[in-house]
Design a protein that fits this description.
Layout: H1 3-9, H2 12-28, H3 32-41, H4 47-50, H5 53-56, H6 69-96, H7 102-122, H8 124-127, H9 132-138, H10 151-160, H11 169-172, H12 181-186, H13 189-192, H14 204-223, H15 229-238, H16 244-272, H17 288-291, H18 294-297, H19 308-312, H20 316-328
Helix pairs in contact: 6-7, 6-10, 7-16, 10-14, 16-20
Amino acid sequence: MSKMELKNYANEDWCDSLRRLRENSQGSGLSLKMQLDGLLRARHVTYWDYIRQDTLLSLQAPRTIVPDEMIFIVYHQISELYFRLILWEMEQLIDEGATVTADLFVNKIERINRYYEQLVSSFSIMVDGMDHHQFMQFRSALAPASGFQSLQYRLIDLHATALPHLVATAHRSQLTGYEPLDKLYRRIYWKEGAIDTKTGRKDLSLSEFEEKYDGLLLGKAARLEQRSLWSIYRRLASTYAVTDHCRSVLREFDVLANVKWPLVHLKAAMKHLHQASQPVESTGGTNWRKYLPPRYQQISYFPDLWTAEERDNWGRTYTYELMSKLVEA
């Protein structure tokens, strides 16, 4: 290297970078020279290594020879990746705890809303982009697996709001406000969707899910009892830090997660499972006709942001719009 080149490198920016690298090395116990030697010998990053492209594309394993099963698998995997992003934003807010500012809170909720908007808008892949006859061919090979069994979907609920807000509508009038967490969890709304209304027995999809994840979810519920997004919102509201814009993005989040997202699933079920002669059961055995319509569940993460009339009519306008579109189709 020439003297001129050395002079170019010996500027303030380079010196500052070396100084910070040296400070970092002191904290790690590594010498600056060792770190620089490591950088010298490190391989450069390629797109396929960074994204793990080969691994990613090896994760689709259809159980049948029906071509459109690939669409079904890939879309569900995409959904789980969006769930991961949603939880990623939620966990950052929860980890920050009492230091969350109103601006940071709004920024994260807006990010979450964008992820949900993508989920909702892209679900036409499942409704219109998948051949009905092919779906009916491969679906029998998937039982008793069900999207009902998505752990991340359940974790989003627990991160978003207080457990009493997630209790099934049939049990809410009995709540006293002093119930232990395990009792509230047993009455959580989504469990009702996997119980046979005639026999009262749990479907296999629910039994297996409970066996695998109930302990984890109860532990999460205990950790999040005073740390959910609902708790953060209440804390900010108590300091008058909540603006109309903040309330607006939270209401949007509520509608996207608890009205529009279930409704696009209902639309898919109506197309693929609701036959003229006899409704077809889901692969997991879930009672989708009662589980999916928001007006039955009436789940709201932020109930204080809605009037009594809005809560009473929860999701009905969107449901009517959906039904009219299905009739027109």
